[in-house]
Every structure is written in structure tokens, then in C-alpha cells.
Write a structure and sequence with these properties.
about 220 residues, mainly alpha, Butyryl-CoA Dehydrogenase, subunit A, domain 3, 8 helices, globular, disordered N terminus
Length: about 220
């Protein structure tokens, strides 16, 4: 793993600890992507999340999606990091989002046939897989002028679809712990930002969002 220290949006940096589940993924300072991240932070600070997710004028869509995908990885990394002690083989023997939704892990390369595993194991597989994608310079080029691959959008969609499952698991199985830790404002703001972003660019199929559909509708109606 490369030198992955750095800052996440201020909306989650006030967490009870800076413990992350995996090392943070850093966007190199001085790069154009870093400037985009700073722009995103500034517009987020205005409090208008619908506006904050919009593609800045004249910017490349792939690059905007890449910067935000890295940031959501860091946010979820931090949020899950605060509740790992409550997400155990015993408490969560399957990876679920409520009684109706269960996820089995496959990455298409190392594990081709989906396997049933505990939530902590699944999330470990998932976050390691995402990290590997983000660290792959052919998929997420950090150098100026290096083009994004033709399949970038489909890779980004798969990453975001899988990251959503971590939010869904936290909300369904661990929200009481989140409340006790007084982390619910961080979780809600992060999730709202994530949902507005994927809605803006149509990145996750509606069926995939079903486990948190009521919450998504509530967050959207509050914003109108």
C-alpha cells in the first residue's frame, strides 16, 4: 500500500477517533485531483449537498468521479473503523442489510463463485478489493495527462455499489452502536452526500439501493 495518510472531508474528521479500518487513500497534494478535492470540500462546507456533487464547470467527469470515489472510500473506512468492535463473527455471522438482504462475496478473479461469509470478513474482502482498484494506476491514474481507461465508469460503478453495502450493513445492524457513540450525524451526512452523488450521475441501480430506500426517500424529501 502506498503512503496513504491524509485528510478526509471535515464532516467526518470530528469522529471519536481517527481510527480507520484500512489505511486512508491519499490524493497527492499539488495534483489537479487534489484541487478538485479542495473544491468539493469548499462546496460541501456551504451545506448544499445537491450543489456540491455537481460536476464543476469544465472538469472531466471521470476525474470528478475518481476523486469522489476515493473520498467515499476514506469516509466509509473511518465510519466502519469506529464500529469494528461491534461487528464480529458472533454478532454478524452473515453479511446482511436487514432480514431481506444478504450479500455473498466474489471479486471475479480470486473468488469467482460467491461465498457466504461473516460481515467482518465480507467487509475486509470488500475494502481490500476497493483499495487495490484505487491503487491501480491503470484504473485510477494520478498523473496529469494519463487517460482513464475505457472501462473506468463500470469499475467506478462496481466500487460504489459495493461501498453502499457497508453503509447498508451499518444502518441495519449497528445503528444503535452509532447512536451510542454519537456518530449518527457523521454517518447521515456522509450517506446523504454519497446518495446525492450516485443519483446525480446515475451510478447505482435502484434495485441495489432497496435496503435503504426509505431512508434515501427521507433524506431526499428533507432537501427539497
Amino acid at each position: 500500500v502506498k503512503g496513504l495518510t491524509g485528510n478526509v472531508f471535515s464532516l467526518v474528521s470530528g469522529s471519536r477517533s481517527s481510527k480507520t479500518f484500512k489505511p486512508k487513500k491519499n490524493i497527492p497534494e499539488g495534483s489537479h485531483q487534489y484541487e478538485l478535492l479542495k473544491h468539493a470540500e469548499a462546496t460541501l462546507g456551504s451545506g448544499n449537498l445537491r450543489q456540491a456533487v455537481m460536476l464543476p464547470e469544465g472538469e472531466d467527469l471521470n476525474e470528478w468521479i475518481a476523486v469522489n470515489t476515493v473520498d467515499f472510500f476514506n469516509q466509509i473506512n473511518m465510519l466502519y473503523g469506529t464500529i469494528t468492535e461491534f461487528c464480529t463473527e458472533a454478532s454478524c455471522p452473515v453479511m446482511s442489510a436487514g432480514p431481506r438482504y444478504e450479500y455473498h462475496w466474489a471479486d471475479g478473479t480470486n473468488i469467482k463463485k460467491p461465498i457466504k461469509c461473516s460481515a467482518p470478513k465480507y467487509i475486509d474482502y470488500l475494502m481490500t478489493w476497493v483499495q487495490d482498484q484505487l491503487d491501480d494506476e491503470t484504473l485510477f491514474p494520478s498523473k496529469i495527462g494519463v487517460p482513464f481507461p475505457k472501462n473506468f465508469m463500470s469499475v467506478a460503478k462496481t466500487i460504489l455499489k459495493r461501498l453502499f453495502r457497508v453503509y447498508a450493513h451499518i444502518y441495519h445492524q449497528h445503528f444503535d452502536s452509532v447512536m451510542r457513540l454519537q456518530e449518527e450525524a457523521h454517518l447521515n451526512t456522509s450517506f446523504k452526500h454519497f446518495i446525492f452523488f450516485v443519483q446525480e450521475f446515475n451510478l447505482i441501480d435502484r434495485r441495489e439501493l432497496a435496503p435503504l430506500q426509505e431512508l434515501i426517500e427521507k433524506l431526499g424529501s428533507k432537501d427539497r
